């Protein structure tokens, strides 16, 4: 969920150009049973900014991940057959007769390489034809192909040209990438204000990568005044917070410190949707744990809180243990004790485990009675 951007020279694949998923390491000595550590992803931001209250220059170390052309857009124009998938004969005929949607769909088929052999040159040719007719998804895909050097030599001038055309038509994928190019001065002069405006437009359409970029900008004070609450809101929306069908937030290894987790805890205090919250592998200390404890005193929806591999000491554990005395819904709290953990720290963990186990039993009985 914590994406990096497209890299020059990478082939345009049928999947998003994402960073590798965090890898699991062997279980650490004295860690809670079943707990495995996770590696940190690359840094997302090196600070810089503009106006009053902000820093002086801006560069994200990783571009917004943009969906590759093969996975974007509607499936209109592709007839399906039960035996062999897309019927490309009819699709090619439509494309050759100038149907922009068919041209784009045919280009995607050459990228995916399912019904035909992968051919990036053919993909570039058909997507170019659709883009020249004003097809917004094709324009976004063509811009990304130029940016990545997929099917054509990389060319930031052409990338910016086609991404801008798509962005002006409201394509959120292109808007996020145009914002990235403005932020980092790729082909255009660095302009954090333009970057912020394009990221904002994309985020209004739900683009998760734009939300990630805005979170970074608010957190570090890039162009906008530093605002940790806004940074937290955008970070949560990266993982779908606010959508009724999203029940879990995975904020593993997001470099969340006490300041950031305090804002997250405040936002989650009365949340009635999220059931699982993972904050594993961050920089949360006793101060952040105390903020989470205050959240647990109010929140009645959360069932699992993962705090593995955070430097939380005895005061933080005690704050959570005290909060659990009044919490009747949380059923699992995951923490990692250091090898030198004191008896008092182990005692606090036992209190937490006892209360969560009791909560689980109570809910089990309630469910049994209702069935």
TrEMBL record:
**Annotated Polar residues bias:** 21-50
The UniProt annotation puts the region (Disordered) at 1-63
Q: Name one Pfam family in it.
A: Sel1
Which SUPFAM superfamilies does this one have?
HCP-like (SSF81901), RNI-like (SSF52047)
Q: Which domain of life is it from?
A: Bacteria
InterPro entries given for it? Leu-rich_rpt, LRR_dom_sf, Sel1-like, Sel1_AlgK, TPR-like_helical_dom_sf
Q: Where is the signal peptide?
A: none
Classification via PANTHER family: ERAD-ASSOCIATED E3 UBIQUITIN-PROTEIN LIGASE COMPONENT HRD3, SEL-1-LIKE PROTEIN
In its UniProt entry, what is this protein called? Answer: SEL1-like repeat protein
């Amino acid at each position: 969920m914590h994406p990096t951007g497209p890299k020059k020279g990478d082939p345009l694949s049928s999947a998003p150009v994402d960073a590798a998923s965090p890898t699991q390491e062997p279980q650490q000595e004295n860690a809670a049973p079943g707990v495995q550590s996770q590696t940190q992803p690359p840094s997302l931001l090196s600070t810089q900014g503009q106006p009053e209250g902000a820093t002086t220059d801006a560069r994200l170390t990783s571009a917004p991940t943009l969906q590759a052309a093969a996975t974007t857009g509607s499936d209109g124009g592709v007839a399906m057959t039960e035996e062999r998938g897309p019927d490309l004969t009819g699709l090619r005929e439509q494309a050759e007769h100038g149907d922009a949607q068919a041209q784009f769909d045919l280009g995607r088929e050459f990228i995916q390489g399912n019904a035909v052999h992968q051919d990036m040159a053919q993909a570039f040719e058909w997507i170019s034809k659709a883009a020249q007719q004003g097809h917004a998804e094709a324009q976004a895909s063509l811009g990304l192909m130029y940016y990545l050097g997929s099917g054509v030599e990389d060319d930031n001038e052409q990338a910016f040209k086609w991404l801008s055309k798509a962005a002006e038509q409201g394509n959120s994928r292109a808007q996020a990438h145009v914002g990235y190019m403005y932020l980092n001065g790729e082909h255009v002069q660095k302009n954090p204000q333009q970057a912020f405006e394009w990221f904002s437009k994309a985020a209004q359409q739900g683009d998760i990568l734009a939300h990630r970029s805005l979170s970074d900008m608010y957190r570090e004070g890039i162009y906008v005044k530093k605002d940790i609450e806004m940074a937290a809101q955008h970070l949560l929306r990266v993982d779908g917070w606010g959508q009724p069908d999203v029940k879990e937030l995975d904020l593993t290894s997001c470099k969340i410190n006490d300041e950031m987790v305090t804002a997250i805890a405040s936002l989650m205090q009365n949340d009635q949707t999220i059931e699982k919250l993972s904050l594993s592998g961050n920089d949360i200390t006793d101060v952040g744990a105390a903020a989470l404890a205050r959240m647990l005193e109010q929140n009645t929806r959360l069932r699992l809180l993962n705090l593995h591999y955070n430097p939380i000491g005895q005061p933080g554990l005690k704050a959570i243990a005290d909060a659990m005395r009044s919490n009747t819904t949380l059923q699992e709290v995951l923490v990692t004790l250091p090898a030198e953990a004191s008896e008092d720290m182990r005692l606090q963990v036992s209190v937490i485990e006892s209360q969560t186990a009791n909560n689980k039993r109570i809910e089990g009985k309630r469910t049994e009675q209702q069935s």
